[in-house]
Amino acid sequence: MATATSPRGMLTLAELCAELQISRSTFYDWRAKGRSPRCLKLPNGDLRIRRADLDRWLSALEETL
User: What pLDDT tens digit does each residue of the chain (65 aa) get?
Assistant: First the structure.
C-alpha cells in the first residue's frame, strides 16, 4: 500500500498506528521494550516501517498464540 507519503511499501508511524489502532505512545512503549516491528530511522529523525517487516512481525505474533 504505497502512498505519496509512504513510497515502496513503507509506512509512516501515523499509518502504522492507524492500521493497528494503537496510540503513538503505545508504539513507543513497545519500541522501548523491543516488542515493535523493525523500524528505519530516516536522517530527519522520522521513523518508517517496511510493510514486509510489519507482516512478518504480525505473523510471529500469531505463532505465539
Answer: 444 455 679 999 999 999 999 999 999 999 999 999 999 999 999 999 999 999 999 999 987 76
Q: Is the pTM of the predicted complex or chain greater than 0.90?
A: no
Among candidate residues 54, 44, 45, the one with its CA nearest the CA of residue 15: 54
Interatomic CA distance for residues 10 and 3, integer angstroms: 9
Cell readout for 26 is 503505545
Q: Where are the alpha helices (DSSP H) in 1-65?
A: 13-20, 24-32, 51-64
**Residue 40 forms beta bridges with which residues?**
48
